[in-house]
Q: What sequence folds into this?
C-alpha cells in the first residue's frame, strides 16, 4: 500500500456544517406533517416526501462538495458541532453532528438512493390504499437514517438507530393484516433488539470509561487518541482490553442490524414488506448502518494494533463477516422466491463488507457498501418491477421468458446482476470486491477468509445466474402474461444502472480516489499499479471465479427450465444437500427449540404465577372481603337487629305483664293500696326506731 | 298493757276485719260495710286518744270523731246510691264482673 | 283493764267478723248493726257520751237502715251461685293481716310511751255546742254543704231515668 500522507485536520465548523442538522430534520418534519393527512391525500404526501428528501439531497451535495473542496486543498475536513442537551450535576449529555468524508459520502448515497426509491414507490404503491401512511413512514425512515449518519454523539446515534429499527418494523409490517407480515416485523424488531442490548452495554461502558458521549470533540472525544490510550490500559475479561471489549459489544449491535450470523434470521423474512421497502431499507441503507457504525468507531476497533494490523475486535469482525458471506450464499442457491434470493445475497454481501472492514480498513469496506447500495437497490427495484409485471407473482419457477416482455427491466437487472457478481473491469462490483479480496490476501492473521470469500464469489455468480435464467429466459410458466412497468418505475432503474457501472471508476487501483478521500491523503495509484504481479494475479483469480460461476449456472439452468412442480436440476442431483439449503440450514428451527422454547416456558411460568399466585392472592383477598361482608351481614341482621327486636319484644312483654295489674277490678286496686300503706308504715316505723 | 293500748288494739282489729271484708267479698255493698267498719275503727281510735291524751277539755278528738261520723253518713248515702245505680245498669253487684276499667 | 271493756270489745269484734263472713247479706247488715252498737257502748265507756249517742243515732239509725235498703233494692238477699268471696280472697286476707300486723306492732312498740291520764274529762254538751259554733264553725259549715251535696247527689244518682221529658 502506498504511504498515506495525512492532511492537516481542520476542525472549525463551516456554514454548511452548522446547518447539517437540517438534513435529517426536514424529512422527519415532513413525516410529521404527512401523519396528519387522511389517506386520500396521496399527491400531497408523495410531494412532501420527495420534496423533503430532495432538500436533504441538495444539502448533502453541498456538504459533500465542501468536503471534496477541502480535500482538494489538502485539508482533511472533520467539522463537528456539539452542544449539551442535558446536565446532571457534573455529567453532561451531549449531542452533536460531524461532517467528514465518511459522513459526507454516506449522506449523498442515502439521500440519492432514497430519492430514487421514493420516486419508484409512487408507481409501485399506486394501487395500495395506504399510500399516504407509506410515505409518512418512508420519510421518517429517511430522517432517522440520515441522523445516524451525521451523529457525532453516541446518544444521537443510538436514538437514530432505534428510530431506524422502529420504521423498519412499521414498514415490514406495512400490510399488517397478513399474519406473515406481522410476524416478520416482530421477528425483525426482536432480533435486532438482541444486538441492540449489547450495543447499549458498549455505549454505556464507553461513556463510563471516557466520560463523554461525543466521538470527536477537539481532542477530548471518546474515539480520539487520548481517550483510546486510556481505554487500552484498562483490562477487561478474557485477555481483552476495554477498547477491545467495547468494540466487540458495538459489533454485536452492528451484527444485529446488518444481519450477520447468527442474527441474520430476520432479513429474509423482512421481504414480506413492499419491494421499495426491501430496496431501501434492507439492501441499501438500514442494513448498511451496521457497517457504517463499525466504520465510524473504527479507531476504537483498531486501537492497539499496528497500522493496518489486526486487533481482537477486528479479527472477530472478519471471521463473522467471512462466515456469513459463505453461509448466506449457500442458502441463496436453493431459494425459489425472487426476493429471498436477493435477501440472502444481501446478507452475504454484508458479510463481505464486514470482512473488508476487518481486514482492509474503513475505505475498503465503505467502497463495497456504496457500490452494493446502488446495484442491490437496482436489483430489488428490478425484482419489484418483475413482480409488478407478473401480477404479484414472486416464485421464480412461475416466471420465465421475461426478457422479451420486459426489456428495460431485463437490461437493468442484468447490469445489476453482473455488478453483483463482480464481472471484471466494467462493473463497480468487481472493483469493490477486489479491494476486499486484496486486503484478505494480505491479512496477517490467516488466509482462510480469502478462500472463503473467493468461494462466496463463485456461489454469488452461480445463484444469480440461476435466478436470471429462471426469470428472464426460457418460456413463460406463469398465469396471465406479463407486461413492462410504467416509466416512473423504470427510470430510477436506469439511473441506478448507470451508477452501478460508473462508480467503479472511483475505486480502481489506478485511481483510488475513494480511499484517498476517506483516509485524508493524496490520491496515489496510477496505471503502473496494474503491472504489479500480485494485483494481476488477484484480478485474474476473481475473473476466473466469476466466469466459472456464470458458466456453471448457465449450463445447469439455460434451456428447458422444469415445470414448477418438478424438482430443480440441482435438487434432483443432490436432494439432501438441496433440502438443507432450501430450509435455510435450520437456524430458525434451532432458535425455535432453544431461545423461543425457553421463553415459552418462562411465559408459561409467569402466566401460572400471575394467574395462580398473584391472581389467587387477589381472589383470596376478595374472597376474604366477601366473607367479612357476610359476617357483617350476619352480625347486623342477627346481633344488632336481633337484639333490638328482642329488646322491643321484651318491652312489649313487660308492658303486657304490667298491664295485667289494671284488671279493672276495684278490689285489686284496694289491695294494692293497703299493701302500699303497710309498706310505708313499716318503713316509717323502722326508720324512726333506728 | 295500758287501757289506751287496749282500745287501740281493738280498733286495729276492727279496722283489719273491715279491710279484709272490703278486699275479699264480691258484693259491692259488703265492701261498703267493710269501709264503714274501718271508719268506725278510726273513730274509736280518736275517742280513745281524746280520753287518755292530754287536754281532753280541748275537745279535739271528740270534734274530729263527730265530724267523721257526719262525713261517713254522707259517704254511705252516696255510695249506696251509686251501688243502686250500678245495679240498675249491670243487673248485678258482683265486683268480679265489673272490669270495664281493665287496662 | 276492766271487765266491761273486754265484753264490749268481744261484742264489737264478733259483730265485725259476722258482718264480713256471713253469706246472707241481710245478716251481714244486721251484724253490722251489732258492731255499731258495741262501738257506741265503747264510746260510753270512754266517757264520750255525746259521741256514743251520736253513733247510735247516725250509724245505727241511718247508715245501717240505708244499707238494708240498698241490699233489698239490689236483690242482695239472693246468694250468688259461685260463692260470696272472690277467687283471690287469700291475697286480700294476707294484706289485711299485714295491715293488722303493722298496726298492732306499732301500738305494742310504743305502748310505754302512750299518754295515760286517769282523770275523767268533765265535758258537757254545752261545751261541745260552744266549740262547734266557735272554734269549729268552718268545718261545721263545710260539713253542712257536704251533707247537702251528698243528699242531692245521692238522689240524682239513684233516681230512675224518666222516659221523655224530665
A:
Amino acid at each position: 500500500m502506498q504511504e498515506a500522507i495525512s492532511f492537516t485536520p481542520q476542525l472549525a465548523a463551516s456554514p454548511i456544517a452548522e446547518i447539517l442538522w437540517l438534513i435529517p430534520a426536514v424529512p422527519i418534519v415532513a413525516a410529521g406533517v404527512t401523519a396528519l393527512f387522511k389517506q386520500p391525500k396521496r399527491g400531497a404526501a408523495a410531494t412532501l416526501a420527495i420534496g423533503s428528501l430532495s432538500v436533504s439531497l441538495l444539502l448533502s451535495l453541498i456538504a459533500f462538495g465542501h468536503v471534496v473542496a477541502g480535500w482538494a486543498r489538502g485539508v482533511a475536513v472533520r467539522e463537528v458541532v456539539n452542544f449539551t442537551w442535558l446536565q446532571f450535576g457534573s455529567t453532561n449529555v451531549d449531542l452533536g453532528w460531524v461532517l467528514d468524508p465518511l459522513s459526507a459520502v454516506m449522506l449523498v448515497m442515502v439521500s440519492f438512493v432514497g430519492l430514487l426509491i421514493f420516486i419508484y414507490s409512487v408507481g409501485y404503491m399506486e394501487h395500495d390504499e395506504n399510500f399516504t401512511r407509506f410515505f409518512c413512514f418512508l420519510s421518517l425512515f429517511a430522517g432517522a437514517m440520515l441522523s445516524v449518519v451525521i451523529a457525532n454523539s453516541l446518544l444521537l446515534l443510538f436514538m437514530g438507530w432505534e428510530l431506524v429499527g422502529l420504521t423498519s418494523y412499521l414498514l415490514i409490517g406495512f400490510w399488517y393484516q397478513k399474519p406473515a407480515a406481522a410476524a416478520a416485523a416482530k421477528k425483525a424488531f426482536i432480533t435486532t433488539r438482541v444486538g441492540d442490548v449489547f450495543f447499549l452495554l458498549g455505549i454505556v461502558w464507553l461513556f463510563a470509561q471516557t466520560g463523554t458521549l461525543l466521538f470527536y470533540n477537539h481532542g477530548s472525544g471518546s474515539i480520539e487518541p487520548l481517550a483510546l490510550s486510556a481505554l487500552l490500559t484498562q483490562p477487561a475479561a478474557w485477555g481483552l482490553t476495554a477498547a477491545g471489549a467495547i468494540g466487540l459489544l458495538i459489533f454485536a449491535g452492528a451484527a444485529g442490524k446488518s444481519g450477520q450470523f447468527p442474527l441474520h434470521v430476520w432479513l429474509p423474512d423482512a421481504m414480506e414488506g413492499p419491494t421499495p421497502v426491501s430496496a431501501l431499507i434492507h439492501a441499501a441503507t438500514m442494513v448498511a448502518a451496521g457497517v457504517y457504525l463499525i466504520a465510524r468507531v473504527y479507531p476504537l476497533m483498531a486501537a492497539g494494533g499496528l497500522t493496518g494490523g489486526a486487533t481482537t475486535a477486528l479479527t472477530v469482525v472478519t471471521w463473522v463477516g467471512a462466515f456469513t458471506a459463505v453461509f448466506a450464499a449457500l442458502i441463496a442457491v436453493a431459494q425459489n422466491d425472487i426476493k429471498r434470493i436477493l435477501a440472502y445475497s444481501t446478507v452475504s454481501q454484508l458479510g463481505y463488507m464486514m470482512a473488508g472492514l476487518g481486514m482492509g480498513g474503513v475505505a475498503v469496506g465503505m467502497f463495497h457498501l456504496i457500490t452494493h447500495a446502488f446495484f442491490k437497490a437496482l436489483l430489488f427495484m428490478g425484482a419489484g418491477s418483475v413482480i409488478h409485471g407478473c401480477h404479484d407473482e414472486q416464485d421464480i419457477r412461475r416466471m420465465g421468458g421475461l426478457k422479451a416482455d420486459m426489456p428495460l427491466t431485463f437490461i437493468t437487472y442484468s447490469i445489476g446482476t453482473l455488478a453483483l457478481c463482480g464481472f471484471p473491469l466494467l462493473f463497480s462490483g468487481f472493483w469493490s470486491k477486489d479491494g476486499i479480496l486484496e486486503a484478505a490476501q494480505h491479512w496477517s492473521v490467516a488466509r482462510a477468509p480469502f478462500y472463503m470469500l473467493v468461494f462466496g464469489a463463485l456461489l454469488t455468480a452461480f445463484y444469480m445466474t440461476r435466478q436470471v435464467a429462471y426469470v428472464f429466459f426460457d418460456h413463460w410458466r406463469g398465469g396471465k402474461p406479463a407486461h413492462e412497468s410504467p416509466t416512473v418505475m423504470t427510470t430510477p432503474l436506469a439511473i441506478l444502472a448507470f451508477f452501478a457501472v460508473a462508480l467503479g471508476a472511483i475505486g480502481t487501483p489506478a485511481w483510488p480516489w475513494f480511499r484517498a478521500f476517506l483516509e485524508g491523503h493524496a490520491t496515489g495509484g496510477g496505471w503502473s499499479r496494474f503491472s504489479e504481479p500480485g494485483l494481476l494475479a488477484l484480478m485474474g483469480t476473481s475473473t476466473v471465479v466469476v466466469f466459472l460461476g456464470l458458466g456453471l449456472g448457465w449450463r445447469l439452468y439455460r434451456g428447458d427450465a422444469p415445470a414448477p412442480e418438478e424438482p430443480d436440476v440441482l435438487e434432483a442431483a443432490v436432494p439432501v444437500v438441496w433440502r438443507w439449503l432450501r430450509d435455510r440450514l435450520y437456524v430458525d428451527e434451532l432458535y425455535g427449540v432453544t431461545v423461543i422454547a425457553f421463553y415459552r416456558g418462562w411465559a408459561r411460568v409467569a402466566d401460572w404465577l400471575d394467574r395462580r399466585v398473584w391472581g389467587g392472592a387477589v381472589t383470596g383477598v376478595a374472597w376474604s372481603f366477601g366473607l367479612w361482608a357476610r359476617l357483617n351481614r350476619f352480625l347486623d341482621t342477627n346481633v344488632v337487629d336481633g337484639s333490638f327486636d328482642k329488646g322491643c319484644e321484651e318491652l312489649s312483654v313487660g308492658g303486657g305483664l304490667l298491664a295485667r295489674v289494671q284488671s279493672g277490678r276495684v278490689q285489686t286496686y284496694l289491695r294494692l293500696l293497703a299493701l302500699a300503706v303497710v309498706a310505708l308504715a313499716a318503713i316509717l316505723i323502722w326508720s324512726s326506731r333506728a | 298493757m295500758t287501757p289506751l293500748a287496749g282500745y287501740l288494739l281493738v280498733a286495729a282489729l276492727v279496722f283489719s276485719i273491715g279491710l279484709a271484708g272490703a278486699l275479699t267479698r264480691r258484693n259491692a255493698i259488703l265492701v261498703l260495710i267493710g269501709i264503714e267498719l274501718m271508719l268506725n275503727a278510726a273513730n274509736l281510735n280518736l275517742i280513745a286518744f281524746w280520753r287518755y291524751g292530754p287536754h281532753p277539755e280541748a275537745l279535739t278528738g271528740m270534734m274530729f270523731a263527730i265530724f267523721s261520723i257526719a262525713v261517713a253518713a254522707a259517704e254511705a248515702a252516696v255510695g249506696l246510691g251509686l251501688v243502686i245505680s250500678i245495679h240498675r245498669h249491670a243487673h248485678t253487684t258482683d265486683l268480679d264482673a265489673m272490669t270495664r276499667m281493665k287496662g | 283493764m276492766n271487765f266491761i271493756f273486754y265484753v264490749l270489745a268481744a261484742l264489737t269484734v264478733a259483730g265485725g267478723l259476722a258482718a264480713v263472713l256471713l253469706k246472707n247479706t241481710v245478716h251481714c247488715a244486721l251484724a253490722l248493726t251489732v258492731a255499731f252498737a258495741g262501738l257506741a257502748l265503747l264510746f260510753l265507756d270512754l266517757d264520750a257520751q255525746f259521741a256514743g249517742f251520736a253513733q247510735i243515732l247516725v250509724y245505727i239509725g241511718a247508715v245501717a237502715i240505708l244499707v238494708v235498703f240498698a241490699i233489698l233494692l239490689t236483690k242482695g238477699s239472693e246468694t250468688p251461685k259461685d260463692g260470696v268471696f272472690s277467687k283471690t280472697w287469700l291475697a286480700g286476707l294476707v294484706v289485711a293481716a299485714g295491715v293488722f300486723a303493722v298496726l298492732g306492732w306499732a301500738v305494742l312498740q310504743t305502748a310505754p310511751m302512750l299518754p295515760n291520764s286517769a282523770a275523767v274529762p268533765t265535758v258537757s254538751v254545752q261545751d261541745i255546742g260552744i266549740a262547734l259554733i266557735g272554734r269549729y264553725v268552718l268545718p261545721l259549715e263545710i260539713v253542712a254543704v257536704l251533707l247537702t251535696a251528698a243528699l242531692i247527689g245521692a238522689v240524682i244518682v239513684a233516681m230512675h231515668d224518666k222516659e221523655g221529658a224530665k
